[in-house]
Amino acid sequence: ARRLALESSTVTPLVKRMEQAGLVPRQRSHDDERQVQVDLTAAGRALLTQCSCLGETLVERSGMTSAEIDALTRKVRALRDALSGDQSADAA
After folding, report:
1. CATH of 1-51, one of 1.10.10.10, 3.40.718.10, 3.65.10.10, 3.40.190.10
2. How does pLDDT run across 76-88, given as a tens digit for each residue?
3. pTM (2 decimals)?
4. What are the extents of the domains in the chain?
5. Which SS3 state, helix, strand or coil, does residue 67 take?
């Protein structure tokens, strides 16, 4: 959830569905039971290799250059940070 900048309540249903599909196992951390550790199963790794061209396909279909996508990504992150009250992004 942290890496995706999403609330855990948003990610949990997705991870549960992925677990039911056999793509990931979930395990509580031994150090902090509030944390759930997720990894890929063999089926999850196989699916990951099947979708490796997804990024290229999205870029191609967007009709945007890499520079335009990078600029858009920076703007979206700045918007996210502004909405969340994170002023440290202003320095970037």
Report:
1. 1.10.10.10
2. 989 988 998 865 5
3. 0.60
4. 1-51, 53-85
5. helix
